[in-house]
């Protein structure tokens, strides 16, 4: 169900456009800081004190192998499109709203994954970057912003942007295309890690070979079969992604109901005010 309420002001008069713009600048700045300190100066990903001439390349490659970096890049692309075409994009169009939902889903997956890593604080499950005692000041800032602040910011702006799309859960199969699309990138990322691990094995590179400990199918967290473990990883990824997306749909409907209820209330107040004005004019 879609209701066209695209009454946005010109982008330069709309605070939501500036919200997206600020969020974009934050992502770009965090990427620059990660390059400057994480790769070049402080060596968050690789020990820069040894004499390996490929350290900077390997460090940069490690940074770009993370799910977080990929999601941030996708978010950057989406924000750029939103900012450049804010007046032209119909907020109630299928592709526009689906794209917003996908970006929110992947950011939430990133947030949940990192949160689990922090709670259990084990490199067997995640990687050495979850060891908080090793964080530098800039590493702490970048980590907190990209894993927590950005996803929260997307959840907040979602509330204010949503007043035109509603999901009918009795007809959930209508949205099968969105439920399929949201799984494409997480599954692609699993495939990316598998291929990368094979390439790194041939190159005799062990650091961040599987990126995250739980993706090491050669040493499964449970069981002994790499094939079975990989199949389970794919199934669990699909299920978790779907659960997150269904919750986004529920949040979407909650926002829709609140925004449209507020609009109706404001309209009733306006009608009542006009009616009172007419009565006063009539009496005078």
TrEMBL record:
Residues passing through the membrane, by range: 17-39, 60-86, 106-126, 138-160, 180-199, 227-251
**Keyword set for this entry?**
Membrane, Transmembrane, Transmembrane helix
- Look up the domain of life of the source: Bacteria
Protein's UniProt name: Transmembrane protein
């Amino acid at each position: 169900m879609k209701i066209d309420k695209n009454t946005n002001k010109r982008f330069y008069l709309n605070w939501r456009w500036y919200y997206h713009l600020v969020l974009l600048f934050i992502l770009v700045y965090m990427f620059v800081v990660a390059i400057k300190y994480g790769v070049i100066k402080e060596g968050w990903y690789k020990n820069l004190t040894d004499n390996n001439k490929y350290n900077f390349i390997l460090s940069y490659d490690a940074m770009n192998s993370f799910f977080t970096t990929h999601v941030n890049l996708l978010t950057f692309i989406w924000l750029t499109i939103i900012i450049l075409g804010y007046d032209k994009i119909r907020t109630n169009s299928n592709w526009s709203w689906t794209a917003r939902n996908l970006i929110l889903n992947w950011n939430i997956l990133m947030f949940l994954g990192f949160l689990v890593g922090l709670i259990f604080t084990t490199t067997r499950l995640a990687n050495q970057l979850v060891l908080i005692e090793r964080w530098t000041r800039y590493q702490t800032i970048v980590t907190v912003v990209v894993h927590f602040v950005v996803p929260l910011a997307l959840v907040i702006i979602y509330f204010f942007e949503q007043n035109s799309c509603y999901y009918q859960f009795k007809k959930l199969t209508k949205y099968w295309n969105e439920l399929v699309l949201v799984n494409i990138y997480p599954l692609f990322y699993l495939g990316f890690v598998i291929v990368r691990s094979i390439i790194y094995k041939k190159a005799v590179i062990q650091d961040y070979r599987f990126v995250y400990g739980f993706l090491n199918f050669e040493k499964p967290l449970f069981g002994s079969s790499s094939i079975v473990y990989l199949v389970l990883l794919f199934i669990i990824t699909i299920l978790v992604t779907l659960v997150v997306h269904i919750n986004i749909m529920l949040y979407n409907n909650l926002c829709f109901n609140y925004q449209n209820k507020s609009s109706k209330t404001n309209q009733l107040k306006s009608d009542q005010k006009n009616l009172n004005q007419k009565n006063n004019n009539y009496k005078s």
